[in-house]
Amino acid sequence: MPRRPSLIHRNAPLPPTGRLRLARCVVEDGWPLRRAAERFQVSHTTAARWARRYRHHGTAGLHDRSSRPHHSPRRTPATVEEQVLRMRREHHIGPLRLAARTTVAASTAHRILQRHGQPPPATLDRATGQPIRRYERSRPDELVHIDVKKLGRIPDGGGHKALGRAAGRTNRNGTGYAYLHTALDDHSRLAYTENLTDETAATRAAFLRRATTWFAAQGVTVERALTDNAWAYSKNTWRDTCRDLGISPRWTRPWRPQTNGKVERFQCATRRSVVSPA
User: Are strands 224-227 and 248-251 parallel, antiparallel or unpaired?
Assistant: First the structure.
């Protein structure tokens, strides 16, 4: 297996070419070590080391070697490492909580996880413990995420925190709901949102037409539209609108909202700034 080229240590007195010249002077030309050390301005022991490596290993021996010890008698026992790894797999916890449940320090648990290639918990899916696979389309136009967020409007005088649960209920005070329809480009995160009065199939289809027109004005021609499996997206109204606009409809897997997570997260971040239409 070919040796990977290693970086030169920042405090190394000689580069590889200088080491080779020194070693050849000693091994091939017969220079005394002290003369070679003075000529290349290094210590006697440094000159002896490069000459010895060149004599036994040739030019391959002139590269910097790892400072990792050959033996680690005080390394954490394999049984303890297996316990830490097993608890990590079962509970998906980090070094601090692993240290509280085992006999090792948090720093030791961290080194064990690093040694075995375990990523930080923040990069894992909470449900499965598997690394989160980030995806993104290679360019705009390819895919637009679409979803609707239903929010209760707050009446004049405040909601249930001010009026109480019974008086502040949305369906009793007549204020109704706000339906935020959002279309978000997968690649650029460019988003278009409308605050509409309902979420019927006709309303969603009309929103798609206006969103497509708006994206086109920004230089984005929508090719695919990804939605969840709401009843309105399964109607012919939605399918016919997509066909008329030249858009290929796509649907997420049932009970898998993560597939449409980009627009879901966008809506969660913007729902507190909703303003009711005049």
Answer: parallel
Q: Which pTM does this prediction carry?
A: 0.52
What would the pLDDT profile of 234-276 be if each residue is shown by its tens digit?
889 999 999 999 999 999 988 888 888 889 888 887 655 444 4
What residues contact residue 130 under an 8 Å CB cut-off, 6+ apart? 124
Distance CA 84, CA 112 (A): 8
Longest dimension (CA), the chain: 101
> Which pLDDT tens digit goes with each residue over 190-202?
999 999 999 999 9
Tokens in use for 179?
């339906």
- Contact status, residue 26 vs residue 51, Cβ threshold 8 Å: yes
What span, in angstroms and rounded, lies between the C-alpha atoms of 247 and 212?
10
Q: Residue 194's beta-bridge partner residues?
A: 181
Highest-confidence segment of 7-16, 97-106, 201-210, 254-263: 201-210
* 64-70 contact pairs (CB < 8 A, 24+): 64/6, 64/7, 64/8, 64/9, 64/12
Instruction: Please report where in the chains the tokens 């449940």 appear, as a residue.
Output: 101
Give the H/E segment covering residue 93.
Answer: none
Query: Distances in Å between the alpha carbon of 239 and those of 176, 180, 226, 227, 235?
Result: 29, 21, 12, 12, 7
> Percent of the chain having pLDDT more than 90?
52
CA distance 35 to 249: 79
